[in-house]
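During the second year of the project, the team shifted from modelling isolated chains to modelling whole assemblies. The rationale, set out in the original proposal, was that interfaces cannot be judged from single-chain predictions alone. As a representative example for this report, we include one of the complexes processed in the last quarter. Its constituent sequences, exactly as entered into the pipeline, are reproduced here:
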Amino acid sequence: ETGVTQSPTHLIKTRGQQVTLRCSSQSGHNTVSWYQQALGQGPQFIFQYYREEENGRGNFPPRFSGLQFPNYSSELNVNALELDDSALYLCASSYDTNQPQHFGDGTRLSIL
Amino acid sequence: AQKITQTQPGMFVQEKEAVTLDCTYDTSDQSYGLFWYKQPSSGEMIFLIYQGSYDEQNATEGRYSLNFQKARKSANLVISASQLGDSAMYFCAMREFLTGTASKLTFGTGTRLQVTL
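Output from the structure prediction step:
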């Protein structure tokens, strides 16, 4: 069974740029959630996609957006990058919205 | 809003000993789920164990068990026979149901466990 995979592993961007992070969900999982984990903190919920629709969102501005594709893989897009966006971005998939979430290895994003 | 509190920033335990990582939670929901995740320095979050609010028995998964005390709103993780590979950050999390079918995990601040020889 293939687990959750995220790409790229690391990324360096500058302020004002845009970035796209990718996530392939675990086989059979139709729900993908994205989290931001700043250094020394627990992950914070960004949003959740269920069957290609955003069905829940945390306290993040609209410049954080996403997509989910028919194969349930997902993208996280961040526009107008700010220094505070530097973090580990974690993708998690689950069989359904109320099942345990399984996480990928994350993408470390650094903003200079 | 839900809240998870982990009061132990760091813990040390000797190899082969048992250790308890504390977690308390606050919610007004009757139905909720509690999770523990392990995060090694590589960054991945590894699911360890789950406890539903209506489960009468404490959850167990191999060397991991969850000491669930509903009245005290605590969900402590017990790791038996610690191994060097258990050294990592440990996060307690609660599932919160949002509108419709959506749900999210609310995490605590984590406990860094160091296993020593």
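The interface with chain B takes residues 33, 35, 41-45, 48, 50, 55-56, 58, 88, 90, 92, 97-98, 100-106, 108 of chain A (CB under 8 Å). The radius of gyration of chain A is 13 Å.
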